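Quick review question:
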């Protein structure tokens, strides 16, 4: 079968294609603003290699309906038509090679078959799509390449599962996992993995792993010849997070969670004498897996304060380690407490390590530091339900804020990540140690009654010879 697959590409798309074709990188992230041409060049690569090698290839997105409206309905026909025209054909749908259709849709337009036996499967990665279309169509075959569009919609465990299917071999060709996205929040795993070279458990990728990862930023102006000035002008008029994501193509500092919507950071803290309460609360969750496994829970300690009904998270320690490591973290929080005279040290009794008493005595002897510990024996029932019940009203009403001083630290990023990723669904990669400890610290300071929205109510009293205004809070 003799045909050409060369089609016109922008300068930035040619750079992208060179990365997609090299034998060095096997995990590639293409990111940038809307209309930058990143998905186009990746889909072109998938089609070209299916034609060149007669190989099976997967193109996926979280929801098949979104993949259909963007890739299947628009990008694929455009690329196929460009290839047909490059070979002197007027319509790819009528083009035949050796009596066989150049390309044809099957399986309700979720499979594109080529005349040489190669094909591209299109699928949704959501649980609903998997159950409706059959996950065996995606997770059973071996693929030469996989392209995940708008990968910001996916959790890392889904991507990790797809990687195991990249095992179709063609001599001299490197299997590629290509991903595209409009950059989400910096708490997303794609930022950590490609910009910070970290896994979701915050451990560093090895130098060998790092060498196989590459990202390329592509912006709307890189695709000016296909978009036009008017479209780019419209994008430039977007505001806030939308401008950062769809025009500037930048990761945002903050994001919105499913249940706990937003983390508010502040450097405006009460003075020492203004605090109503201060607490260091520790959830000493025992290790149930290997100590440094990415699935292991954190021993989490939180320094929090109460002022005028507001909860301030001043700092935290999140440790996968020994009882001694945990005590060192508690002592560090004690030392940074703004008012030690009213700071209560509290620990959940249920999860206390068996060696706690012995290690605590040794630690006190070594450091000279020993404070009374209040044991928390309260029962909250199912953990996720309790976290949602007590924390969701706090976040909705902006009654909890975080100290700006630890925002850029690893523990700050992990805390924000756990807050925003908190969900009713179980996911072994997403921990909820921090939300759990925060919920228990807050209820210890305020009491265990369910939080309700607070609204200021204006009361007017008529007193001759004038009006006198009083304000109080109604709960």
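Suggested answer, residue by residue:
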């Amino acid at each position: 079968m003799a045909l050409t697959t060369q089609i016109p590409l922008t300068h930035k798309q040619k750079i992208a294609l060179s990365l997609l074709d090299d034998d060095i990188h096997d995990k590639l992230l293409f990111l940038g603003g809307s209309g930058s041409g990143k998905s186009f060049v990746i889909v072109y690569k998938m089609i070209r290699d299916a034609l060149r090698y007669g190989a099976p290839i997967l193109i996926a997105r979280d929801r098949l309906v979104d993949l259909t409206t963007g890739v299947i309905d628009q990008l694929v026909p455009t690329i196929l038509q460009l290839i047909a025209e490059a070979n002197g054909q007027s319509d790819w749908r009528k083009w035949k090679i050796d009596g066989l259709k150049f390309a044809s849709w099957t399986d309700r337009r979720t499979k594109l078959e080529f005349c040489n036996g190669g094909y591209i499967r299109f699928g949704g990665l959501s649980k609903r799509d998997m159950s409706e279309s059959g996950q065996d169509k995606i997770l059973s075959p071996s693929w030469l390449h996989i392209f995940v569009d708008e990968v910001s919609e996916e959790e890392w465990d889904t991507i990790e599962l797809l990687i195991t299917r990249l095992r179709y071999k063609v001599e001299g060709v490197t299997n590629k996992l290509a991903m595209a996205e409009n950059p989400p929040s910096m708490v997303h795993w794609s930022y950590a993995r490609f910009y910070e070279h970290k896994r979701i458990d915050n451990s560093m990728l090895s130098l060998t792993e790092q060498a196989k990862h590459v990202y390329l930023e592509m912006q709307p102006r890189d695709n000016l010849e296909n978009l036009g000035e008017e479209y780019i002008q419209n994008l430039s008029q977007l505001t806030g997070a939308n401008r950062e994501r769809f025009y500037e193509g930048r990761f945002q500092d903050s994001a919105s969670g499913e249940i706990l919507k937003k983390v508010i950071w502040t450097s405006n803290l009460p003075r020492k004498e203004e605090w109503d309460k201060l607490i260091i609360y520790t959830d000493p969750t025992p290790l149930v897996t290997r100590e440094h496994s990415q699935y292991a829970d954190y021993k989490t300690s939180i320094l929090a304060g109460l002022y005028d009904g507001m909860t301030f998270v001043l700092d935290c320690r999140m440790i996968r380690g020994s009882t001694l490591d945990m005590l060192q973290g508690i002592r560090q929080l004690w030392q940074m407490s703004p008012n030690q005279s009213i700071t209560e040290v509290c620990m959940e009794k249920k999860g206390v390590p068996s060696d706690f008493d012995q290690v605590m005595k040794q630690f006190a002897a070594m450091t000279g530091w020993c404070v009374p510990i209040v044991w928390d024996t309260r029962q909250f029932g199912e953990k996720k339900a309790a976290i949602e019940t007590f924390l969701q009203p706090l976040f909705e009403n902006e009654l909890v804020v975080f100290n700006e001083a630890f925002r850029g630290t690893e523990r700050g990023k992990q805390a924000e990540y756990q807050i925003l990723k908190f969900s009713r669904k179980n996911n072994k990669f997403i921990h909820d140690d921090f939300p759990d400890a925060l919920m228990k610290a807050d209820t210890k300071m305020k009491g265990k009654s369910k939080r309700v929205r607070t609204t200021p109510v204006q009361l007017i009293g008529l007193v001759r010879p004038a009006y006198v205004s009083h304000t109080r809070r109604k709960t």
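Why it works: The longest helix spans residues 64-86. Residues 288-295, 450-475 have pLDDT under 50 and may be disordered.
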